[in-house]
Write a sequence for this structure.
């Protein structure tokens, strides 16, 4: 084995520090595509984005476009947007409804489940040994699986099941769905696409970094009369949690339970959303509904690319070693129109290129990307809270919300994937 | 109805609307936040759609969809000195052209114009292009903005941070 077979990943990741080159080394990025993005389970889209048979929507796995389709039989398919003939893209529309995809180059036509329906001018292939229509369909992502409507794809033929990959973190997706009186979320509000000249891992780590909000977001907390700042103060009882497999969370429930006020998690009151509260009471019973409305939705990072930020759904897409796109929409809860309206309003204020919060996060990503290219010190120190971290009743590592337990968990998993 | 007749009255209206839009552009370029905010009507709406120009902002995500109080919040955040995406503030110069105006039945004026904006910030230098549509209300010798819609030419694509006043 050559010294460079794993690009010395082990030497660049230690228990509480990582080497700056991991964020800007082009070779590392190419290796990540093979070992993480084109291998493990990656979130692609939500079933509710394809309400009807033959609906399709353009999604991605890493830098590659993926057509997510509900085929004519209602099955969700993840297709590569590449004609098996000479490589042309068969679809350039963002979304639509189509039974067939016809490549514009030489008119090869495919069913929306991928199969090649026919060649144009077929005489040229008649009697040809390898012009086998059954082998010349659109390539499919080999493994597709859903959890609570969240659709994931894995480009590896074999590997851990989605259930194994999610592990204890699946419970966070359950918690998202609980906020709907019908137990389902919907992704129907369209996406903002915000790009940042930064490595994708800075975004993943930042999503459950509870240390930065008090500083990076002080400008908006200070003028918006927001209660969010206190959740991330050094006096907060909120927790950071590492679920393993790279999945992490900032668990704000201790703070909301202490306050004991339904819907405080969303900065509103039961009085302002009477229809929602009535639907929740009817669905879950008053006692359970009250608990759900106190706890709120999670602040959950499902590795490597699905981030639920209480009221928003983010998809993180790496496009180059120093370029990442954040796709973001407001979560919509089935059966909760009055809640959903506020979700959209708050989301538009907070996120996207002009968002009160995300514009500043992105500014930090870009400054950090430039910063780590300075040679000294070579390392980033991620040791905060290591000495006060402990295991919760489920065996997951937890610590104070401002501690770097999530980052350490993310890097532990990253190292395992890159050395596998 | 589009104002096309070359009457003196129309030329004066065209001139005064254009001057108002140029003033707004300069206030934005030079980060005179309070003076810019003062141009807005009490019920002003500042809209920067995403994914085209014909989406319903009540149902779908927009890049900006501010009512008057959120416009004020945006300005207050810029004033804190800790709005890092504008700290340091972008260096900006924009050109406004292709102004067309219509007088609406309620007496308001709809003006549209192209905007080409050069931005220099810590990340680099960038160009933004948009069609701006204003709904203006007469107030004394000047106007108030009842609605401003900024249709970025590439609003269906991933965009870098847009934290200056567009």
């Amino acid at each position: 084995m050559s010294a460079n077979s794993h690009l010395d990943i082990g030497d660049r990741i230690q228990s509480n520090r990582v080497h700056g080159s991991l964020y800007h080394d082009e070779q590392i990025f190419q290796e990540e595509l093979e070992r993480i993005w084109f291998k493990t389970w990656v979130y692609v889209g939500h079933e509710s984005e394809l309400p009807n048979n033959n609906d399709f929507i353009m999604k991605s796995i890493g830098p590659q476009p993926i057509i997510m389709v509900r085929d004519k039989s209602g099955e969700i398919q993840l297709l590569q947007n590449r004609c098996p003939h000479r490589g042309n893209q068969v679809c350039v529309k963002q979304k639509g409804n189509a039974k067939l995809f016809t490549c514009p180059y030489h008119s090869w036509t495919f069913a929306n489940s991928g199969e090649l329906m026919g060649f144009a001018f077929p005489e040229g292939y008649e009697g040809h040994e390898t012009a086998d229509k059954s082998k010349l369909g659109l390539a499919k992502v080999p493994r597709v699986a859903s959890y609570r409507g969240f659709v994931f794809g894995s480009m590896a033929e074999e590997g851990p099941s989605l259930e194994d990959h999610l592990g204890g973190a699946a419970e966070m997706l359950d918690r998202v769905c609980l906020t709907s009186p019908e137990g389902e979320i919907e992704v129907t509000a369209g996406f903002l696409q915000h790009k940042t000249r930064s490595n994708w891992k800075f975004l993943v780590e930042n999503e459950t970094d509870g240390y930065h909000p008090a500083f990076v977001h002080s400008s908006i907390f200070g003028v918006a009369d927001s209660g969010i700042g206190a959740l991330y103060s050094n006096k907060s009882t909120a927790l950071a949690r590492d679920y393993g497999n790279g999945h992490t969370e900032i668990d704000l429930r201790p703070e909301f339970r202490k306050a004991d006020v339904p819907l405080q998690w969303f900065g509103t009151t039961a009085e302002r959303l009477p229809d929602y509260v009535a639907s929740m009471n009817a669905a879950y019973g008053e006692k359970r509904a009250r608990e759900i409305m106190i706890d709120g939705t999670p602040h959950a990072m499902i590795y490597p690319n699905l981030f639920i930020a209480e009221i928003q759904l983010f998809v993180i897409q790496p496009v180059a070693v120093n370029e990442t796109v954040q796709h973001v929409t407001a979560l919509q809860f089935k059966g909760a129109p009055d809640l959903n309206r506020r979700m959209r309003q708050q989301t538009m204020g907070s996120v996207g290129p002009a968002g009160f919060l995300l514009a500043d996060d992105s500014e930090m990503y870009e400054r950090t990307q430039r910063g780590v290219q300075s040679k000294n010190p070579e390392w980033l120190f991620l040791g905060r809270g290591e000495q006060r971290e402990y295991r919760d009743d489920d065996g997951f590592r937890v610590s104070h919300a401002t501690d770097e337990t999530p980052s350490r968990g993310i890097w532990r998993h990253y190292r395992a994937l890159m050395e596998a | 109805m589009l104002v096309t007749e070359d009457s003196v009255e129309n030329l004066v209206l065209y001139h005064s609307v254009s001057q108002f839009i140029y003033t707004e552009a300069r206030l934005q370029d030079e980060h005179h936040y309070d003076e810019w905010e003062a141009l807005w009507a009490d019920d002003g709406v500042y809209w920067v759609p995403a994914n085209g120009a014909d989406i319903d902002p009540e149902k779908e995500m927009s890049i900006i969809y501010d009512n008057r109080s959120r416009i004020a919040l945006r300005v207050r955040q810029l004033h804190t000195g800790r709005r890092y995406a504008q700290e340091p503030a972008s260096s900006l110069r924009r050109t406004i052209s292709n102004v067309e105006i219509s007088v609406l039945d309620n007496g308001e004026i709809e003006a549209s114009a192209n905007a080409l904006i050069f931005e220099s910030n810590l990340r680099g230098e960038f160009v933004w292009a948009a069609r701006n549509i204003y709904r203006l209300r007469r107030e004394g010798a000047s106007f108030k903005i009842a609605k401003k819609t900024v249709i970025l030419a590439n609003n269906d694509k991933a965009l870098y941070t847009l934290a200056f006043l567009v």
In short: Residues 1-5 of chain A have pLDDT under 50 and may be disordered. Chain A touches chain B at residues 94, 189-197, 216, 218-220, 222-224, 325, 328-330, 341, 344-345, 347-349, 352-354, 356, 359-360, 362-364, 366-367 (CB under 8 Å). DSSP finds 14 helices and 23 strands in chain A.
